[in-house]
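HOLO CASE FILE
Compound: adenosine-5'-triphosphate
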Amino acid sequence: MRGSMFKNGCRRCCYVMVDYLDAIGAGLILLDPTPLGFDFLPSELVERDELQRALAGRFSSIGHASGSGRAVITGPVGSGKTSLVRRFCDDVSRHLIGTRDIAVAHINCRNENTTMQVMHKIVAQMDERHPDRGLSSGELLASIRRLVAARRGHLIVVLDEVDHLLRRAGNDILYHLLRIDEDASSEGTLSLILISQEQILDVLEGAVISRLGASNHLRIPAYTRNELAAIASQRATLALRPGSWQDTHIDLISEAAAANGDARAAIELLDPAVRNAESDGRRELRADDVQRAATELPSTHADGLVDELNLHQLLVLLAVARRLRRADHITSGDIDQLYAVVCEEHDADARSHTTIWKIVKELEARGLVATRVAPVGSGRGRTTHVTMPTILPADLIPRIEDAVPRRRR
Ligand SMILES: Nc1ncnc2c1ncn2[C@@H]1O[C@H](COP(=O)(O)OP(=O)(O)OP(=O)(O)O)[C@@H](O)[C@H]1O
Ligand SMILES: [Mg+2]
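Model generated. Tokens follow.
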């Protein structure tokens, strides 16, 4: 069979040499792509215990036959608003199995942005075969009430990215939903959760906010660098081969994403970093895999930044970049030494340790380097590590070397 010909004279395609496909399915680093997907919801959220408790607190009566809750969640992009609510809805439905049948309608109002579209969507999520033509909003509301009553349950309606709906259609729908039990003999049919980025308060009329209860408003902060590291580390543990990555890679990722505190940006760096390493045929990540991935982030514009630096900022950056070509961090002591060498090379008078450190901080403010305090060995001592999370040092060096002589003129 081996090497047999098809009638048209072609060799069987499976015997053609296809080295270039070797990396596909090899799982050199990536064992399971699912946890890196944009829709993946981890069974446990990282660093959100307090907010989860605060949200649950707004729904303390939901276990009772007539109980319901309301919440408004706002926070910046990628601060985990949608995940917080999806996790809560899943967890609470499971928690109440045998007590109350909880249905969830999670509507993204970027897609459904009229009152009728949202109502239809809620009904459709509860009953796929529900006829969707010609019904008024009042009739749809009655359908929702009937569907919930039929299962003797409760419905949590989540209006995600609700600002799109409110801007387009006003807040009619909120009144409809909040009044679902008025004029009917029902009670506690529906809970409502609104999610939006910060600007929701401009759009939500005061009356609506007070109807939902100002104390039900939870503001979610952007993630800190450490929180982003914990999130990226959770995904790496779930998706990647043990031993193929190190905490230092996670640190680089969290530093690159820290400017916006956006968890999505941190998670999205893992995938291209892994791809960079695997396409090289490696079983281990390297710092430059992450750096190369981060240079693709929209916020990176090292080119223009180099042009704005003065001579000693360039020389310090050169010292840092040279070391980081081969290492993922450099200590402040090493910067002093390498910078002295660089100054000698370029015939410049080296500045003091204090000035060098001030320059490092200036470079950090411009997003060219990041600094973090790290323990020395296993002892109690501490030192500072300087890294370059969003720039590829090898790309930067020729640009700096090109700029230095111009600065000396
Ligand atoms: N605490 C967390 N633990 C684990 N993963 C998280 C956490 N917070 C966010 N994520 C992940 O980060 C990504 C973005 O989170 P999410 O979609 O919830 O943010 P968002 O605030 O709704 O963003 P947007 O404003 O763009 O709608 C998702 O993949 C989510 O799973
Ligand atoms: Mg969201």
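CASE NOTES: Confidence is low (pLDDT under 50) at residues 1-6. The first helix runs from residue 49 to 57.
CLOSED: yes
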